[in-house]
Amino acid sequence: EPFVADEYIERLVWRTPGGGSRGGPEAFDPKRLLEEFVNHIQELQIMDERIQRKVEKLEQQCQKEAKEFAKKVQELQKSNQVAFQHFQELDEHISYVATKVCHLGDQLEGVNTPRQRAVEAQKLMKYFNEFLDGELKSDVFTNSEKIKEAADIIQKLHLIAQELPFDRQVHFSRANLDICCSKYHDLECQLIQEFTSAQRRGEISRMREVAAVLLHFKGYSHCVDVYIKQCQEGAYLRSDIFEDAAILCHRVNKQVGDIFSNPETVLAKLIQNVFEIKLQSFVKDQLEECRKSDAEQYLKNLYDLYTQTTNLSSKLMEFNLGTDKQTFLSKLIKSIFISYLENYIEVETGYLKSRSAMILQRYYDSKNHQKRSIGTGGIQDLKERIRQRTNLPLGPSIDTHGETFLSQEVVVNLLQETKQAFERCHRLSDPSDLPRNAFRIFTILVEFLCIEHIDYALETGLAGIPSSDSRNANLYFLDVVQQANTIFHLFDKQFNDHLMPLISSSPKLSECLQKKKEIIEQMEMKLDTGIDTLNCMIGQMKHILAAEQKKTDFKPEDENNVLIQYTNACVKVCAYVRKQVEKIKNSMDGKNVDTVLMELGVRFHRLIYEHLQQYSYSCMGGMLAICDVAEYRKCAKDFKISLVLQLFDTLHALCNLLVVAPDNLKQVCSGEQLANLDKNILHSFVQLRADYRSARLARHFS
Question: Using alpha carbons only, what angle is made at residue 40 by residues 37 and 44, rounded to the nearest 5 degrees?
């Protein structure tokens, strides 16, 4: 533990007799304590001197050993320098000897190489002599186990024979003929047969040896063909030929590098063989049988087969097939499908048109509806507007019996067919033709969905709008608007999800957007025309008011016995208005809702305003009119249009003129809500009071 002086002295004091505190078991004796301290200090001094002598002795010993160690290190350094010099001398000597040896080796090689060539040439001349004599005696030609050596010799003799002047010397021509046509061919066939047998036995090492020998023969390509043919034996056992081909290529890729010196060329040739023979035959069988008889199945098969082929190509991209494997595989795919892709878009558009027409016709047949030609533009639009706005008898409206002639099932079917067409177009079209082909499909969708279905339903709905004087007219056009709105949202979603990715970077984008804009504007124009159904709504309200409102409602015979809060006509009108407001909100969205509700609210206000001015009001009748207007105002709040609510607030304030005391008329007329109104309007309401002709009232108002 670390030395602490205070603690050391405390322990010394407690051990000394008489060193305790006063009142303890032993009295405190300072003399004895001082004596003990003096003695202990002397002991510590003696101990310090003894330790100091020991330290000095150790220091002297350490200095002595350090000198000895330094001397020893110097001796070792000298020895190391001597050894390094000896090593340098030895290295120089070794370099000198190595140079001599290399020079000698070069000289020996210079002598030995011509000698080896001469020996080899002598052997070839000997073998060539045997061919000249017409009798092969050498063991290398008669022993079947030495086929590798024989092949090497025959190949070299074949090269020599190619350069012999056999046209001039008869003897050479015979030897050349024997080598080229007989032994060369026989040995080549024998090697190929040996390779085939080794492949069947699965002897990779033997196949590698034979392939290496055949590499310099003309029949090497035939050896590769045999290998490719045998690899495919029993390879196509599953129902999925594309999966079988992928497994085959994967297996061969692992093996071909151990057999051939150019594995990428052999593997590429195998893949080419698979594509051009096996896959092309399979694709032809699948497509030709339905090419003319069933366009739908033909397009489906073409899309599936092309997709499976490109997927197989993607799997093969991981193999080493040479420098430009992407172009190589693309050419193979194109060679299979070129005859089908050339006229793909014609088949696609023809099928899509016929399929879309069939879907629409089947729907109209289910409704027992004969699709009629409804005029558009020019005179027909003018007649329709005149009929709806003036109620002139320009011909009866078409009774649709509540049918909108719009079907979400039909729309989903059309969009699904078009979606599949877009997917096929994306996969099967050449990149340069893709935007143009996608635009053609889009125009077909516009024709059958937007024009033949939605536009026809809008035209039929417009023709079916009843005149404003019709009683109990059903306003089915709003149902048409609601369904058309929903359908167009689906159309717009497909436009963004499936068409835009295909044309986003091409000039066709602006054409598609322009065509879509024209369709929207055309439909909005028809919807604007159809908004004249508001005339029918106002007409229905007029019929309700005419049938239900009585003159005695606002001028009761018994002023003291009026029990109702508002009139029956008011109840029915408000119920009808609320129903129509809800229908409009469900049929439209966005700003269209506010626009239509504002127009309806303004017309509704005008109707009630004109209706109230048809009656004379007693005091109690005026109170009842105020209650009716309050109910109308409550109904107007459902519109959630500030202008409409403001109009009814003003109308409610005007109705107060029917009940206010004559003395307060001027004060009420100068109020906040009535101060800005024309005085003639105020006067017209005051004139509706039953007591208006009294001199007192006329005097106060004037």
Answer: 135
